[in-house]
């Protein structure tokens, strides 16, 4: 029986390489260095411990047990080099150090000649160093929001969590929400985009500019949790499924490729798949993934028709009202300021008031409204209405009660809040303020007496004054006719230049209106194309541009300067649909909202109707 030794030559070479590595590993003891950052933290935060093993060997070195501290491995890296046939490697492993109590902790030295590490943990407060943005555990259910469902990705790198106050809502209701993204330390490279909402019946307000940071442990692993605060608005009834997703870049460990000439199971699959060989011969790569939260089932109820007040404008929430006058005493004809304050939480964009209407003894003007949010999401705050009023009659005048109607989702009923009537003492107009007429002033001064004649007798003929050269009337004289002609010519010239400037202005205004009409037609065509493609962001962006072009001409301002604040200031709360289009244009850019064909058609009709009647606002 003949044996072919060529099959065993690759195996022999591999075995020889292993023995050479093993022999080099015992040639010299490895050097171990440790680094702890930062050296002082607050309870609820964590520090980072890095253990580096270098030299002729790379035996794994674990951190020692320290009462009150927990060490969690978050990453490992390896490097190998060969000089003159001698192979050496360097392995670094990073641990998250999580304290269980406050105090001073000593981490013993891991090699001879090195010193122990000291970690100071304060009872609480802001941290210093690298953990300045971290805090304790996330807010609990005491904030009114549920804990939210947590589902880790398959590789355990991240999670997205949606926290809501309840699962049954009404159309038009606004509720606060928290979006939390958990990131495993050392495995997530970056967040490549803001969290977005997936649900065609909901709108998400602008997210808070900077997320809050906290540390949370899950399955024994530390996670950095980022929390964004916002508010969720419901736009139509039905039963829906709501999720939130976030794009991330994660680091993935790559396994070494098996050599083709090595027999299957030569050293055992467990040896090839060991973490040492993975780190020694493998590496890491980055991959783009999208992490989504667990689906939340929500039920949206329509607003009831029974008991709906005539003055109800769609406001849903809980509100309180109060009113005041700028002065308790005034004079007839002097203006006063009537203020109405609405405080609470809910859909403030639907809170409207006509203020004081036509009341005997009062002259009123159109009111103005302004909203001041009390939180970053705009869920709670105060909306102030101001109106100029003028008492026209003296005596004790009364401003009747002002009313606000809304639907309370907690009581499931419509409510109307009334302010208390206001009184003001109105004095009559002072007599000294009346001007004396010129006729009375002239009759009050008698004409001076004529000088008596020297002899006491009046003359028997009329004494004439200065002499004139002609009896021709004044209006027939040349100098008078010339001066009047000059005045007529000046008037005609001024009228000519005035008409010419007016024609130029009308021509420029007509050109601007024609250009705006062309731009509006182009935007409407773009809306039709976007609705066909199902692109909500492009649809609402085109709708906003069309409304800006239509409002710019009567307001005499640039279209790009028309914002939600400008609409609230000029329309005094009467442009609710226009305001919603502007808000949806801002939100659709990052919410990835999907609309049905019926929704697109409904919004197209709303935009066309607003364009048709916008000049009357």
Provide a brief overview of the structure:
With 617 residues, the chain is of the alpha+beta class. 25% of the residues lie in helices and 34% in strands.
Which secondary structure elements does this structure contain, and how are they paired or packed?
Blueprint lengths: L8 H17 L5 E7 L2 E3 L4 E9 L13 E15 L2 E14 L3 E5 L9 E6 L35 E6 L4 E3 L3 E11 L3 E4 L4 E3 L3 E3 L7 E7 L2 E14 L3 E17 L14 H4 L2 H7 L1 E10 L3 E6 L15 E9 L3 E3 L4 E11 L15 E3 L3 E6 L6 E12 L3 E5 L3 E6 L4 E6 L3 E6 L10 H7 L33 H56 L2 H20 L8 H8 L4 H16 L5 H17 L4
Parallel strand pairs: 2-7, 9-18, 20-28
Antiparallel strand pairs: 1-3, 3-5, 4-5, 6-7, 8-10, 10-15, 11-16, 12-16, 13-15, 14-15, 16-17, 16-18, 19-21, 21-24, 22-24, 23-24, 25-28, 26-27
Helix pairs in contact: 5-6, 5-9, 6-8, 6-9
Describe the structure.
With 617 residues, the protein is an alpha+beta fold. The chain has four domains: 21-131, Immunoglobulin-like; 141-300, Sandwich (Immunoglobulin-like), CATH 2.60.40; 305-429, Immunoglobulin-like, CATH 2.60.40; 504-616. It has nine helices and 28 strands. The protein has helices spanning 9-25, 269-272, 275-281, 438-444, 478-533, 536-555, 564-571, 576-591, 597-613; strands at 31-37, 40-42, 47-55, 69-83, 86-99, 103-107, 117-122, 158-163, 168-170, 174-184, 188-191, 196-198, 202-204, 212-218, 221-234, 238-254, 283-292, 296-301, 317-325, 329-331, 336-346, 362-364, 368-373, 380-391, 395-399, 403-408, 413-418, 422-427. The strands form seven sheets. Strands 9, 11, 12, 16, 17 and 18 form a six-stranded mixed beta sheet that branches. Strands 8, 10, 13, 14 and 15 form a five-stranded antiparallel beta sheet that branches. Helix 5 runs antiparallel to helix 9 (597-613) and helix 6 (536-555) runs parallel beside helix 9. Mean pLDDT is 76; it is low at 19-27, 125-143, 264-268, 275-282 and 434-447.
């Amino acid at each position: 029986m003949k044996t072919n030794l060529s099959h065993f030559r690759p195996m022999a070479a591999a075995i020889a390489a292993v023995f050479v590595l093993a022999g080099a590993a015992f040639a010299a003891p490895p050097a171990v260095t440790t680094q702890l950052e930062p050296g002082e933290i607050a309870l609820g935060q964590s520090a980072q411990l890095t253990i580096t093993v270098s030299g002729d060997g790379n035996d794994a070195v674990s951190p020692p047990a320290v009462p009150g501290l927990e060490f969690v491995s978050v990453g490992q890296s390896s490097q190998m080099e060969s000089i003159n046939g001698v192979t050496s490697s360097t392995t670094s492993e990073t641990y998250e150090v999580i304290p269980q109590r406050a105090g001073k902790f000593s981490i013993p030295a891991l090699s001879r000649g090195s010193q122990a590490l000291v970690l100071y943990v304060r009872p609480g407060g802001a941290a210093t160093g690298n953990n300045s943005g971290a805090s304790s555990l996330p807010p609990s259910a005491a904030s009114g929001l549920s804990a939210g469902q947590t589902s880790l990705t398959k590789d355990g790198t991240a999670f997205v969590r949606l926290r809501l106050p309840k699962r049954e809502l009404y159309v038009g209701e606004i509720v606060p929400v928290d979006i939390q993204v958990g990131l495993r330390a050392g495995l997530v490279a970056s967040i490549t985009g803001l969290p977005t909402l997936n649900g065609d019946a909901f709108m998400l307000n602008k997210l808070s500019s900077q997320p809050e940071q906290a540390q949370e442990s899950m399955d024994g692993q530390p996670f950095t949790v980022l929390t964004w605060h916002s508010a969720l608005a419901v736009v139509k009834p039905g039963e829906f499924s709501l999720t939130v997703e976030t794009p991330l870049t994660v680091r993935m460990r790559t396994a070494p490729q098996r050599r083709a000439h090595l027999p299957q199971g030569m050293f055992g699959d467990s040896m090839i798949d060991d973490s040492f060989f993975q780190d020694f011969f493998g590496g890491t790569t980055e991959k783009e993934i999208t992490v989504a939260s667990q689906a939340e089932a929500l039920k949206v109820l329509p607003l009831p028709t029974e008991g709906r007040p005539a003055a109800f404008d769609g406001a849903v929430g809980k509100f309180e009202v109060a009113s005041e006058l700028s002065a308790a005493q005034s004079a007839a004809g002097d203006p006063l300021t009537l203020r109405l304050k609405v405080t609470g939480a809910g859909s403030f964009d639907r809170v409207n008031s006509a203020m004081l209407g036509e009341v005997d003894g009062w002259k009123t003007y159109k009111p103005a409204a302004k909203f001041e949010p009390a939180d970053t999401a705009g869920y709670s705050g105060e909306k102030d209405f101001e109106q100029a009023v003028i008492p026209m009659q003296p005596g004790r005048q009364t401003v009747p009660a002002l009313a606000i109607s809304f639907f309370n989702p907690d009581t499931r009923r419509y409510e109307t809040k009334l302010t208390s009537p206001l009184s003001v003492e109105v004095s009559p107009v002072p007599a000294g303020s009346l001007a004396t007429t010129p006729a009375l002033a002239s009759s009050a001064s008698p004409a001076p007496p004529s000088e008596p004649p020297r002899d006491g007798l009046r003359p028997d003929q009329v004494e004439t004054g200065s002499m004139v050269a002609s009896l021709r009337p004044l209006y027939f004289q040349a100098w008078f006719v010339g001066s009047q002609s000059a005045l007529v010519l000046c008037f005609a010239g001024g009228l000519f230049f005035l008409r010419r400037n007016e024609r130029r202005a009308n021509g420029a205004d007509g050109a601007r209106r024609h250009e705006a009409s062309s731009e509006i037609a182009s935007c409407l065509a773009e809306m039709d194309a976007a609705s066909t493609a199902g692109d909500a962001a492009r649809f609402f962006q085109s709708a906003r541009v069309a409304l800006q072009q239509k409002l710019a001409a009567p307001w005499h301002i640039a279209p790009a300067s028309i914002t939600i604040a400008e609409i609230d200031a000029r329309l005094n709360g009467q442009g609710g649909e226009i305001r919603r289009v502007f808000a949806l244009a801002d939100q659709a850019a990052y919410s990835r909202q999907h609309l049905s064909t019926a929704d697109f058609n409904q919004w197209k009709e709303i935009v066309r109707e607003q364009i048709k009647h916008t000049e009357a606002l």
